[in-house]
Amino acid sequence: MDFITLAKLRKYLSIKHHVPGRIRIKFNLAVLTDPLAKTLLDSDVAKPPGVHNVRLNTLARSVVIEYDAERIPPAMLDQLMAVESDEEAAGLVEELDGLLRIDA
């Protein structure tokens, strides 16, 4: 899981529940038609700094991401999932990556 993939798949995703440090994202089954979907949980792709765990629940059609709310601002994740344009999403991903590089 990385933030770029999350941003690119956001049209299939919606936040079901979010508390700082843990976000549950519901996904539309149409996500399975997108080639990027398999990379969302690909264990070969390194998780960004601050992301502790990513779990898929196919029956509930959800992904739970556990993260360090001190390093990843919860409001930025909310914003990333809500933005309309790809340019805004790319800007947020860049901002998140910058924050995580500074904290590393």
Outline of the structure:
The protein is of the alpha+beta class. The chain has helices spanning 3-8, 74-82, 86-103, and strands at 13-19, 22-27, 51-57, 62-67.
Explained architecture:
The protein is of the alpha+beta class and 104 residues long. It contains three helices and four strands; from the N terminus they run αββββαα. The chain has helices spanning 3-8, 74-82, 86-103, and strands spanning 13-19, 22-27, 51-57, 62-67. A four-stranded antiparallel beta sheet has the order 1-2-4-3, with helices on one face. β3 and β4 form a beta hairpin. α2 runs antiparallel to α3. The longest helix is centred in the last third of the chain and has 18 residues, at 86-103. The radius of gyration is 13 Å and the shape is globular. 16% of the residues are buried.
What tags apply to this protein structure?
about 100 residues; alpha+beta; four-stranded antiparallel sheet; 3 helices; about 30% helix; globular
- Oligomer state of the chains in this structure: single chain
Q: SSE string, helix = H, strand = E?
A: HEEEEHH
Shape: globular
Task: Report the biggest beta sheet as strand number plus sense, adding barrel if it closes.
Answer: 4 strands, antiparallel
For the largest sheet, list the strands in their spatial order. Answer: 1-2-4-3
Helix content: 25-40%
SSE inventory with pairings:
Blueprint: H1 3-8, E1 13-19, E2 22-27, E3 51-57, E4 62-67, H2 74-82, H3 86-103
Antiparallel strand pairs: 1-2, 2-4, 3-4
Helix pairs in contact: 2-3
